[in-house]
Amino acid sequence: MELKTLLKIDSVLEQPVLLAPMAGVTDYAFREICRRQGADMTYSEMISAKGLKYNSRRTFELADVHQGERLAIQLFGREPKDIAQAIEMLQEQQGEKIVCFDLNMGCPAPKIVNNGEGSALMKEPLLAAHIVEEAKRTTSRPVTVKFRKGFDMQYCNYLQFAQTMQEAGADAITVHGRLRGQYYAGKADWACIAQIKERVHIPVIANGDIFSPEDALAILQQTRADGIMVARGATGNPFLFEQIKQYLQDGTYKEVERDRKANVILQQAELCCEAKGERRAMQEFRKHAAWYLKGVRGAAALRQQAISITSMEELKKLIDYVSGEPAHTVRDMV
Ligand SMILES: Cc1cc2nc3c(=O)[nH]c(=O)nc-3n(C[C@H](O)[C@H](O)[C@H](O)COP(=O)(O)O)c2cc1C
Known about the structure:
Blueprint: H1 3-6, E1 17-19, H2 28-36, E2 41-43, E3 47-48, H3 49-53, H4 57-62, E4 71-76, H5 80-94, E5 98-105, H6 110-113, H7 125-138, E6 143-150, H8 158-168, E7 172-179, H9 191-199, E8 204-207, H10 213-223, E9 227-230, H11 240-250, H12 258-276, H13 278-293, H14 299-306, H15 312-324, H16 330-333
Parallel strand pairs: 1-2, 1-9, 2-4, 3-4, 4-5, 5-6, 6-7, 7-8, 8-9
Helix pairs in contact: 2-12, 5-7, 7-8, 8-9, 10-11, 12-13, 12-15, 13-14, 13-15
Bound molecules: flavin mononucleotide.
């Protein structure tokens, strides 16, 4: 089935452009901002299936789908029963607002990997398959899997893993072309995504190192993927989505005007305050503020201020620097 049909995505593009799940980053405010700038679908931060099982309030908060939102929920865990239970709970709570359940088999963080979760599951393909089967038995929604090129050189098993996921019933897969040990360093290997695309018949979403509209076109040409997913390229630059969309349609894209950028930062901060209250929102917004300031003249000093903001008032002063700066291209910012 086509990716757009599978995920009920209404996009001008044949291959939709998605905002990746990012822990600590893709909260409701950032997702909504990316959606407004053209992201065809967004993902929650990764959510612990065990955390839901033990009724952790903060964990449930991560899975909160807001009014009007259509969200892919990403779960992590290594117990098939925990994943199934999490899906049941979330379906009951959020209903139609959940587009699909994505299973995290790519996270490289030691505290996840040391529990045998995230990318560690690439070393246990049979267990990984069992998790997918259990998820499929529990929901009629699409179940997708996000994984890496492999865990390490010994388990550089992306082709076999992709096939195993397909056989287990995964409806689509997302591939980030790096080994676990690479974290986010070096260059993502797009050739491995192209090989997977030739091997499986389910939709493949290509991920890794899309920082510009040109990168988006290149990864699509090199992998023939059914969709693309952007993570770091969107931080401080949600405008990348509309630029990619324009570029893929007519080969051009516009620079972002300073005033518009300032306005979007303000919108995101306000959404964040509404969802979390000003105090917590501003603590969590610090990193976003620092990302938005990249490329602005005097950014180093401004970012020092950004990482200690405590109120909207302080943030607004920083935003003034964004709107008051000479024009710069988004290319400079990433
Ligand atoms: C801060 C941060 C948090 C992330 N959190 C998640 C996560 O919760 N789930 C996940 O599958 N991947 C996560 N990732 C990985 C991204 O989704 C993506 O696969 C990776 O960054 C490569 O894409 P990029 O080159 O566009 O950044 C995270 C990445 C970053 C930088």
